[in-house]
Amino acid sequence: MSMKISKLAGRPVIVGGGAAGLMTALHLAPEPVVVLSKSPLGAEASSLWAQGGLAAAMGEDDAPALHLADTIAAGAGLCDEAVASRIVNAAPAAVENLVRLGVAFDRRPDGGWRLGLEAAHGRNRIVHATGDGTGREIMRALISAVRNTPWITLLEGVEARRLIVEDNAITGVLAASEDGPLVFDTERVIIATGGIGGLFLDSTNPAGCYGQGLALAAHAGARLSDLEFIQFHPTAFDGPSRPLPLVTEAVRGDGATLIDDTGQRFMADEPGAELAPRDIVARAVWRRRAEGHRVFLDARTHPGSDFARRYPVISAFCKMAGINPANDPIPVRPAVHYHMGGIAIDGEGRSSVKGLWACGEVSRTGLHGANRLASNSLMEAIVCARWVAESVAGVSTGRVRPHAIEALPRAPDPSIVRPILADGLGVLRDRDTIAHTIHNLFPIACSRGAASDPALVGLMIAVSAFRREESRGGHYRTDFPGTLPAAVSSSINLAEALNGANEIVETETASLRSARP
Ligand SMILES: Cc1cc2nc3c(=O)[nH]c(=O)nc-3n(C[C@H](O)[C@H](O)[C@H](O)COP(=O)(O)OP(=O)(O)OC[C@H]3O[C@@H](n4cnc5c(N)ncnc54)[C@H](O)[C@@H]3O)c2cc1C
Question: Residue 365: left (phi > 0), alpha (psi -120 to 50), or beta?
């Protein structure tokens, strides 16, 4: 294997084989590029699980300016308007490009787009495929295109464990494979490792999505931004299986309502009702459950008997649990779904470390602000992949210096981190729950154990959440329920997170000591 690896020296290395990574690789062609995917393509990518679709102003009554306005409103003051405008304006062309790559989106009988409606969108603008199988169809087409592109070297079962950095510049990637450690000598790395749901107990994400890209970037010295903003999906299927299957927002867009176990429709009087922004719906469901109720999505009237045809994936998992959505309310609960924060990047995807780019959910572009508008994430990954690829291709590198193989950090295991984060960084947080989380995570993050990288990512999120003394978008502090007049993005790096955590732990310990009789 290492003989073959040395032939790949100097090529850009993409870490992650979801929509963001594969699209970046395709845009880089014909430049030779390497894609590392820790699992077989599609097996552990959120991209494949996307149900609702991809937001783009394709309708005759729609325009990118309207899409932008909805995105900014959902983002609760933290969107970067210039970035968001550029991305939503590029969305319709990105959809057409996916069609050229072979993605079969749903069409009306007259050939026009069949556009769905999701929460906080003022227009029907969700392009979808096979009803609720959009991600599967997009990934089918992208995987096929990548496998048929000879200049893309795809290495499945290879997991990036560390980036090699000299003088704040990338010089290599250290990875694990079944044949042992590998070093890729390269000055260009694109992180496309997806989200963080796998750091929590209740999440809709594949279990393998636990923020490895954030750990890679943090160890490399990169800045990360807005990490405290985590989106909880209000309607994950409330059953025993983990990850939790998702009941897409499109079902509410089709008229399904939220009721509790007494049959009361508790969102009816809220502005936007069931289609209010996700954070508002998630908090309402969370509170209802905290009061001892179960919550259900009632799709018996809308879409009613059409449910199985419109939502075959949801229908299938409901059936396995003995539920027929045309006759029975679907039990639902909030679950960690999407990370708005991530590696801080500029408009071309460049991080603060030379030679390090990021794309997709792991990045923080400024599109989502404090709360992502539904179906804006696949779109962001697909749109930004082109700009990242153009930026990477524009960087000429000299002869790369070969590295000796270094000792690999241990294979990461987030299992002991999950209950800690689930307790302290839920839909509702406060100073005490966050401080307790930091207290528990700090020693694990400082260890060299299997949980240290997952704990480090959790710690960076917790320190960011501790410092934000307000409620905004996906970050709700019960001790600071108001929103500050000025919207300011947060920014953190590894050293600041560890120093911040140390201070918080010391202060908490001192105050506990002084409170003792
Ligand atoms: C159930 C569900 C439904 C969703 N529905 C929608 C929707 O309808 N519309 C929408 O816009 N968004 C939706 N989202 C969000 C959207 O799917 C994701 O934000 C998006 O697909 C992320 O793409 P990505 O390429 O960044 O990451 P992913 O698709 O998650 O891919 C990341 C890849 O990186 C690999 N990887 C991770 N770490 C390493 C490593 N160290 N080394 C090598 N490989 C690594 C993983 O194995 C994976 O293959 C949904 C998400 C979920 C979970």
Answer: alpha
Is 499 exposed, middle or buried, given 0-12, 13-18 or 19+ CB atoms closer than 10 A?
A: exposed
Catalytic residues: 278
Ligand 1 neighbourhood includes 211 CB (under 6 angstroms): no
Closest residue by Cα to atom 50, ligand 1, is 50
For residue 342, which of 502, 256, 461, 188 has the smallest C-alpha distance?
461
E strands, 276-376, are 295-298, 330-339, 342-344, 356-358, 363-364
Which of 477, 478, 474 is closest to 334 using CA atoms? 474
Pairing outcome for strands 13-15 and 33-37: parallel
Could you tell me the distance, in angstroms and rounded to a whole number, from the CA of residue 18 to the centre of ligand 1? 6
CA distances from 483 to 57, 370, 467 (A): 30, 12, 14
Query: d(Cα 47, Cα 37) in Å, to the nearest integer?
Result: 13
Measured in Å, residue 410 CA sits from the centre of ligand 1 at: 23
**φ, ψ (nearest 5 deg) of residue 221:** 100, 10
**Atom of ligand 1 at shortest range from CA of 205:** 53
- Ligand 1 pocket test, pick from 377, 388, 413 with the greatest ligand atom count within 8 Å of Cβ, gives 377
How, if at all, do strands 295-298 and 257-260 pair?
antiparallel
Q: Hunting for tokens 């009361």 — which residue is that? A: 264
Ligand 1: atom nearest CA of 128 is 8
Ligand 1 closest atom vs CA 52: 8
Q: What does the pLDDT profile of the chain (517 residues) look like in tens digits? A: 444 688 999 999 999 999 999 999 999 999 999 999 999 998 999 999 998 899 999 999 999 999 999 999 999 999 999 999 999 999 999 999 999 999 999 999 999 999 998 888 999 999 999 888 999 999 999 999 999 999 999 999 999 999 999 999 999 999 999 999 999 999 999 999 999 999 999 999 999 999 999 999 999 999 999 999 999 999 999 999 999 999 988 899 899 999 999 999 999 999 999 988 889 999 999 999 999 999 999 999 999 999 999 999 899 999 999 999 999 999 999 999 999 999 999 999 999 999 999 999 999 999 999 999 999 999 999 999 999 999 999 887 777 888 888 789 999 999 999 999 999 999 999 999 999 999 999 999 999 999 999 999 999 999 999 999 999 999 999 999 999 999 999 999 999 999 999 999 999 888 877 877 6
Residues 369 and 72: beta-carbon distance below 8 Å: yes
Choosing from 46, 163, 229 the residue with most ligand 1 atoms within 8 A of its CB, the one to mutate for a pocket test is: 46
> Does 71 contact ligand 1 (Cβ within 6 A)?
no
Q: Is the CB of 53 under 6 A from ligand 1?
A: yes
Ligand 1 lined by 17 (C-beta under 6 Å): yes
